# Entry
Amino acid sequence: MTDRADHALTDQPSERREHSTLSSVRNAARLLKEFSTGTREIGVTELSRRLGIGKSTAHRLLHTLAEERLLERDPTTGAYRLGLAIYELGNAVSMHTDLHEACTPVLDDLRNATRETVQVAVLDGREVVYVERRESPHTLRLFGRIGHRNAAHCTSTGKVLLAWLPAHALRELLEGWDLPAHTPYTITDRAALLSQLEDVRRRGWALQINETEMGAGAIAAPVRNGLGEVVAAVSVAGPIQRVQGDSLQRMAHLTVEAAGTISRRLGFHGAKPQRTLDPRS
# Structure
């Protein structure tokens, strides 16, 4: 009886905190949604009235969101409006929506032409996140899913995205990065990785064989937006017995072409790169 009572007593504050936290998040979401009605600025008193919360709570919500740059305060009126972080998030959503629409028919064609798994990945810190995927029709194929993450330094998509990072951003990312080994073939030396990234930039596409997992190979090429920035990478992946020799050359050519098509669908109108397809160059 005592144990149960003690357990109940210790649970109650935890439950109250959880409920309070969820209520705060809900109120913050409701607050931000008020700007979707056409409201440009909102003050503490008006927000308190609209959401049915106390002025002190409204003030804490507004101040916290302003600290996170989701809102900004007008020093003259004291009212709050949407901040830069909201627009940055909106641009990110727009970019992923545009990327999905630009990729869809191209990935289908690339999968049909190579009969291998094709993917599109974006960089998130030291990892790549696969945001689009088409499965190979072969019985023997690589398995994965949209949303799956992998280390950037040992994947073909990751090498592409690292290769076209601004120099200062790449330096910051490599600082303190241990480059863990996933297989005996994974590059774990920073100088060796930088040398390979230079090769990727010169060649125009990246290759990994047995670096992520034994028996798997992949080729990737950069996808650019309308400003010419590399925002994603498209790859073809399969068992290494099918990603070698003449097949490798053909897949590399098709991958580069597909990446170029997606880039043009995103508004990139730069000169078409003339790249060698020799992986040793």
